[in-house]
Amino acid sequence: MTTSLLFHVYGLRDQELLRTDFKYSAVTVKVKTKEDKLQCSHCHSWQVIKSGTKERLFRGIPIGSRPVYIIIKVQRLECKQCGRIRQEKIKFARPKSHYLNSFRRYVLELSRIGTISDIADHLGIGWDVVKEIQKEYLLKNYGRPNLENVEYIAIDEFAIEKGHKYMTVVYDLVSGVILYAAKGKDAESLEGFWRRLKKKDVHIKAAAIDMSPAYISAVSTNVPEAQIVFDRFHIKRQFNEQITKLRRDLYRQETDLGKKDLLKGTRWLLLKNKENLDSQKNEHARLQEALDINRPLAIAYYMKEELDLIWEQDNREEAEKVLGSWVAKAFACGVPRLKKFANSLLAHRSGIFAWYDYPISTGPLEGINNKIKTMKRQAYGFRDDEFFILKLYSLHEKTYALTG
Ligand SMILES: [Zn+2]
Question: Mean pLDDT over residues 294-304, rounded?
Answer without folding.
Answer: 87
